[in-house]
Amino acid sequence: MVFRHSPDEPVLVREATQNDAKAIGEVHAEAWRVAHRDLFESHWLRRFTDERRRRWKSVMASRDFVRDTLLVAERGDRLVAFVYFGPVDYGVREGEIFDLYAHPTAWGSGVAWTLMDNTWELLVDARYRRIHLWTITGANRARHFYESFGFTQTTRTREVDFGDGRPVLEVEYLRSTR
């Protein structure tokens, strides 16, 4: 367990447990709902947020989950952010941050920075050489956050269809651990 202090109150960063699945889903759904409200039609956004609200119990029960890490950040008695990361097949000793979300009520509070700082320490300790992540091009808040943490946009892009038949463009970010 790692405690970091923010201007408001301490943040506890710890490994997630199965008991956190519902709260992780709520953070994921609300972050998606607010951050992407201008990127998807409202009925699709509702569907996508509902999927994120439900998905974490099955993600945490999957066989692949064993190789990955899921950290949560708590402020007081409330889970307010999470990060999900692990190894990827891009090359030797490379990792990827699959998901990093903070509840909108925690935006701007330093919680995401504290969580990413703890994550970075684990990634460096695990001797990953480079860390990848992908984000939607229209997710400007997320993109600014990643850039402020030292990630650089690469030239790689991909189209992702979340289920509405209208693919959105994602861009890759990369940061060396050295």
UniProtKB/TrEMBL annotation:
Residues 11-175 form the N-acetyltransferase domain. The keyword Ribosomal protein applies. One of its GO terms (cellular component) is ribosome. Gene3D superfamilies: 3.40.630.30. Pfam families: Acetyltransf_1. It comes from the Bacteria. This is Ribosomal protein S18 acetylase RimI-like enzyme. One of its GO terms (molecular function) is acyltransferase activity, transferring groups other than amino-acyl groups. It comes from Actinophytocola algeriensis. Keywords: Acyltransferase, Ribonucleoprotein, Ribosomal protein, Transferase.
